[in-house]
């Protein structure tokens, strides 16, 4: 009587599921969404930190810069302000000057009017602002014909001891403008600390937008990854 020996069958482990092109594409989308969301959230966080660091009352304010010149005035170069975009982005602008020793005058006028007032006056034009000083282009001349506050060229002006400030909305009177800082009595030797601020109303909208977009992208990326994981488990069971 013969004995038949059965050879045990060899069971090969099931091959791992092959990732389809669709799953790979979804994985790429998920990773891109997470990276984009994290970037947007980081940008929103940076804007929040900048707002807390630079906010002074209603204005985001620059560092204080020392303006010091031997002449009778310190003036900025002509700046084009007052367009719709500037008003939407910057809002109101504030210039502050803190006097040392004598009352100070600070005013903003159309560049043509400021140039006419300073024609023949020894003054310095700021060409670059550095912390804590500035770079100037000196103009030769003599004293002004009148004290600055006596002129009617100024859109905004302030005069007095200590800190004086002017502020204006950029949509009030569009044009090219120059800021002038002088001793209130028009004498030589300007020595003040100054800063510039802007209300930047768009900052809140941009920050909120970045945070919302970032959160949505993170949620989308996370949802896709969870969905892929669930479908993969289902395929292996």
Q: What can you tell me about this protein's structure?
A:
With 237 residues, the chain is α+β, with helices and mostly antiparallel strands. It has two domains: 23-53 and 203-236; 59-198, Jelly Rolls, CATH 2.60.120.380. It contains four helices and 13 strands. Strand 1 and strand 2 (59-61) form a beta hairpin. The longest helix is centred in the C-terminal third of the chain and has 35 residues, at 202-236. The model is unreliable at 14-18 (pLDDT under 50).
Q: By helix and strand content, what is the structural category?
A: alpha+beta
User: How are helices and strands ordered from N to C?
Assistant: HEEEEEHEEHEEEEEEH
Write the CATH fold name of the largest domain.
Jelly Rolls
Report the β-strand fraction as a percent range.
25-35%
The coarse silhouette is: rod-shaped
Radius of gyration over C-alpha positions, nearest whole angstrom: 33 Å
Tell me the number of structural domains.
2
């Amino acid at each position: 009587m013969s004995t038949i020996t059965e050879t045990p069958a060899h069971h090969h482990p099931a091959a791992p599921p092959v990732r389809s092109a669709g799953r790979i594409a979804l994985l790429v989308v998920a990773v891109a969404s997470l990276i984009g969301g994290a970037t947007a959230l980081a940008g929103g966080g940076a804007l929040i930190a900048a707002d807390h660091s630079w906010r002074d009352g209603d204005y985001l304010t620059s560092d204080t810069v020392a303006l010091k010149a031997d002449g009778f005035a310190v003036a900025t170069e002509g700046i084009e302000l007052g367009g719709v975009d500037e008003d939407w982005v910057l809002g109101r602008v504030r210039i502050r000057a803190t006097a040392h020793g004598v009352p100070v005058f600070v005013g903003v006028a159309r560049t043509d009017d400021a140039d006419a007032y300073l024609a023949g006056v020894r003054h310095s034009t700021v060409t670059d602002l550095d912390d804590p000083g500035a770079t100037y282009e000196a103009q030769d001349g003599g004293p002004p014909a009148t004290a600055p506050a006596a002129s009617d060229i100024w859109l905004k002006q302030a005069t007095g001891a200590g800190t004086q400030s002017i502020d204006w909305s950029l949509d009030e009177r569009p044009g090219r403008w120059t800021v002038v800082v002088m001793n209130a009595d028009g004498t030589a030797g300007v020595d003040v600390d100054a800063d510039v601020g802007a209300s930047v109303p768009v900052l809140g909208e941009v920050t909120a937008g970045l945070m919302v977009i970032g959160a949505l992208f993170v949620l989308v990326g996370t949802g896709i990854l969870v969905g892929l994981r669930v479908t993969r488990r289902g395929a292996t069971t």
